[in-house]
Amino acid sequence: MKKFLYPLLMLAVVCSCEDKPVNPDGPDGPDNPGPDTPAVTAVPWTPVIDESELGDAPSPGQYKLTVTNIGTEEVRNFDVAPGSGEKFDLIPGVYNITAQAHGSRAGRAYNYIGTVTSVTLSKPEGESTTIKVSASASSALVFKEIHYNASKALGSSTGRYLKDTFFEIYNNSEETVYADGICLGDPLSYKVFDFSDKISNAGDYIFMGTYVWRIPGSGTDYPIAPGESFVIAASAIDHTKVAESLDLSTAEFETICDKYKDKGGQTDANAVNMILACTIKETGLGNQFGKFTDGAWVIFYPSVELRKDGEYLESNHANNYGLEVLKADVLDAVDFLKTENPDDKRLEPALDAGWLKCETTGGNQSVVRKIASTREDGSIVLQDTNNTTEDFEISSKPEIRRHGVKRPSWSTWTTAQ
Amino acid sequence: MTKKLTYLLAMLSLPLILQASEPRDKAWLMLNTTRSPWMESSNAAGLARSAPEAFNLVDAGYSYETGDYRRMQSGQTNGVMSFDTQGALKVGKVQLWGRFRYDNTNERGSSFNTLLYDPYDERFAYTAADTVAGQWKKQSYQMQFKAAVPLGESFAAGVHVQYTDRIAAGQIDPRAESFHYSVNVKPGLTWHPGHSTIGINGLYSNTFERSIPSISNSQETQKVFLLKGLGNWVGEQVGGSGLSTMYFRCNTWGGGLQYSYEDGWKLIASAGYARHDTRTRESATQPKPHGSTLKQDYDANITAIWGGSIIHKLGLSSSYAVTRGTEPTTQWNKETGEWDVTFSAKQLKLSTGSTYLSYDAFITEGDSYSWHFSGTAGIQMKKDSYALPESHFNYTNMVLKAGVERSLRFVHGSTLLLAGELSAVKNFSSDYTYNGHRTDTAPVQVLYPHNLSILAADRAAAGLSAEYAFPVSKGLMLAFCAEGNFLISSVQKNRTALSGAVRLYF
Prior knowledge:
The complex is a heterodimer of chains A (417) and B (506).
Chain A: H1 2-15, E1 43-53, E2 63-69, E3 75-80, E4 88-90, E5 93-105, E6 108-121, E7 127-137, E8 141-147, E9 151-152, E10 160-161, E11 166-171, E12 177-178, E13 183-187, E14 205-214, E15 223-224, E16 229-233, E17 253-254, H2 258-264, E18 272-273, E19 275-279, E20 295-300, E21 313-314, E22 321-326, E23 330-337, E24 356-357, E25 366-369, E26 371-374, E27 380-382, H3 388-391, E28 392-395
Parallel strand pairs in A: 1-7, 16-17, 17-18, 23-24
Antiparallel strand pairs in A: 1-4, 2-3, 2-5, 5-6, 6-7, 8-11, 8-25, 9-10, 11-16, 12-15, 13-14, 13-20, 14-19, 14-22, 20-23, 21-22, 25-28, 26-27
Chain B: H1 2-17, H2 26-34, E1 55-66, E2 77-91, E3 94-110, E4 128-129, E5 134-151, E6 155-170, E7 175-191, E8 196-214, E9 222-229, E10 232-238, E11 246-263, E12 265-282, E13 288-306, E14 310-333, E15 338-365, E16 368-386, E17 391-409, E18 415-434, H3 442-455, E19 459-473, E20 476-489, E21 495-505
Antiparallel strand pairs in B: 1-2, 1-21, 2-3, 3-5, 4-9, 5-6, 6-7, 7-8, 8-11, 9-10, 11-12, 12-13, 13-14, 14-15, 15-16, 16-17, 17-18, 18-19, 19-20, 20-21
C-alpha cells in the first residue's frame, strides 16, 4: 500500500493549489507574485485645487477634473469645488490630471486650466494631488473645422484621395482681426523631442516638425469680421468629381506653391496661395500638409522672424529638426492622436489639455468645434476651453462654413472648374 | 533555410540508422509504447530499463478542418501538411529515441491575433490583437531525441532534448512575420532498488519569439489592441510610427519526480513542476516593456498496466497551470532616451486545471492486438481573473470519451485497423464578467464572449479512422490511412476535420 502513497501525495499537492488574488505591491516584487498577497485595491484620492495664480480672474467656483490613467487609457471626470476635500476611488496607476473651468466677467471670457502629469497613485491609505490652475482670456481666431483624414477615391475600394483636407478658422471674438501673416504648422511631440541644449528657455517654445504655411498680406489685406471664417484648403477645387469628398472651390487660401505645382501637377485655383514659409522636414505625402490623422496643429502669429530652411535646430534625436515658435504666439492648438493613449499627446496640456482619437486615412471625417452660444445677431460663439476633447467632436460629413457662418467680404471668387 | 534543410536531413537519416528487423503497424506500435510507460514520462533515464522495442515510423499527411466551432484566434479553415518521423533503437548500452516533425499550416479566417504563431500560449498574454479576419501561413520544425544509459547495476542517466523552430507570416493587414525558437533540455537520473525505479529530472527551456508587425497598404494604418487581459487593452496601430518589433523571451526551470514498480504488472507515478518567466518587449533599440508573466505548471500522473491476453491500462492524470501577469506603465524619459517603468501592477491571473481518469483494454494477438477499447472521463476548469477593473472568465466542463479499434490481420501480412470514437463535453458553469471602461469595444463584445461560448458549449463529436498496411519488402510496411471527425455543439456551430496520411513502418 505504501507504493501508492507517494503518487497520491503528489495529486493532493496539485489539487491543493489555492486560487489567490494578486497584489501590485507584494513584498516579493512585481515579477514574483506572492501566493498569499491581497488583491489590488483602489486608492482614495483627494484633488487639491490651488487658485493662487488666477490673478484678476474670478474663481469659477467649480472645476471639471479629467483624470486619465496612462496605463489603461481610462478617462474619468469629476466635478470638484476648491477646498471641498472630496475623495475619489482610483485604480492604482500613473495619471495625468487636468482641472478646467470656463467663466466670464465684465464681458471677457476666461479659460481656467491646471494640469499635473505622471502622478503615481498607489498607496492604499490614500493620496492627494495639488493642481495649480491659471486663467487666460480666449483667443479671437480658433480652428472651427479640420478635414483631417482625406477621403476615398471614386471608383476604387482602396484608393485614398489626399488633396481634399482643409482647415476652417473662425473669428470667435467681437472684434475684426486680420489673417495676414498667420501661420499654420504641425508641432513635434514635446515628450519625445528635446531642444533644451540647443536653445535657452526651451520651455517657452513649441517646435514645428514638417511645414509651416503662412498667409500672405501686408497686415490689413484679409480682415475677418466677428462671425466670419476663412478656409485653408490643400487644393481649392471641387473634389466631388474624383472622390467621395466636398467642394472646396470657395476656399480663401490653398497650400500651393511653385514647388508643389511642379511636383504634384496640382491645379492652381483662384484661392490665394499660401506661402511655404518653412520646410523643416519634407514628407512623402502627396499633398502639402505635413500630416494626416496623427498629428497636432497650431495656428500662430510669429512675433519674431522665423528661421529659414537649413537653419533649424536638431533635436535629441539625430536628423530630426524643429522650428521654434513662442508659445505666447500661439492662437489656437489642437491635438489628434492615432491611438487612444493620451500619453502619446504631442501638445503640452497648457496649449491643449485634451486630445481627440482620429481614424485612419480615407475616412472622410472632420473634427468640428462645438457651439457654446449664439449672439443676438445670430452669429455663433464656439466653445474654446483649450481642451480638444471637450471642444471638438468628429463628423463623418465634412462641411465648410457650417452653421451659416459668413465668408469674409473680400472672398468673392468661385473657382471655374 | 540552409540550416533548416540540414536539420531536416539529419533527422531524416535517424530512422534509417535505427533499423528494426520485423515489419510493424500502428496497432503494434501503440501496444509497444503502452508497455513502456517511461516513454511518456519526462525522465528519459527511465528508458534504460523500460524501453519500447525498436521501431521506425515515417508519416506524411494532410489534414483539413473547417467550421464555425472555433475560437476567434483559430482559422475558419485550417489546412496542415505534415511530415513526421520517429524511431527507437538500442545501440550498445545506450537506448535512443528520436523524432522530427514538420508542419506547414495555412489558416484562413482567424482574427484577434496580430503577432503570434500560437495565440493561445498564456505565457505571451501581453500581445496585440485586431478584428480583421486574416490569413496565416505557418511552418514548424520540431526535433527531439532521448538517450538513456545505465550507470552500473542500479542507476541510469538520460537526457531529453527538444528544439523547435517556427515561423509564421500574416497575409492580410495588419500582418506580422513571427520567428519562434525554443530549446528544451531535460536531464534525468533513475535508481532501481529491486522492482522499483525512482527517478528525478530537471528542466531548462529557453524560448524566444520575435514578431515584426507591418502593413502592405501604407495609406491605411491598422488599429490593434494591446491586450492586458479579459477585455482590458490599450490602443495602438500598425503602420506609420506605430507598433514596432515585439520580442517575447521566456526562461523555464523545473523538474519532476517519478516512481515505478514492475513485478508482472506495472505502475508508474510522476509529478512535475515548471516555472516560466516571460518578458515582452517592443523594439530592440529602445526597449519598451509590455508586460511580464510568470506561469507555473503542476502535473501529476499515475498509471497501472497489467494483464496478458488482455492488457489493461488504468490512468489518472491531473494538471494545473497558473499564469500571473504584471503590466507596467511606461513613460519616455527624455534624459536617458529610454522607456521608464513608473508603475507595475499584478492584474492578471489565468488558471487552468484538468483531471482525467482513463482506461484502456487491449485484447492481444501476438505482438499486436485484435481489439482495443478505451474510455476517458475528466473535468476541465478555467478560472481567469483581472484585479481592477474586476473581471472574470470561468468555465467548468465534464469530458467523456469512448473508443473502439479493431485490428484485422490478413494473409501475406497486411493489416486493417478500423477505429471509432465518440466524445462529449458537458458544461457545468460559465461566466464572463467585465467591469471596466472598454464595454463597447471588440475584445469585450466579441473576443471573450465568443470564446467562452465555444469553450463552454455542450458538444459531441464522432470520429472514424482506417489504416490499411501491407508489406512491401522484408521489414517494411506501407500504410494508407484516412480519418474523419465531426463535431456538433449547443451553440449551433459545427466543425469537420478530415485527414489522410501515408506511413512507413520499419
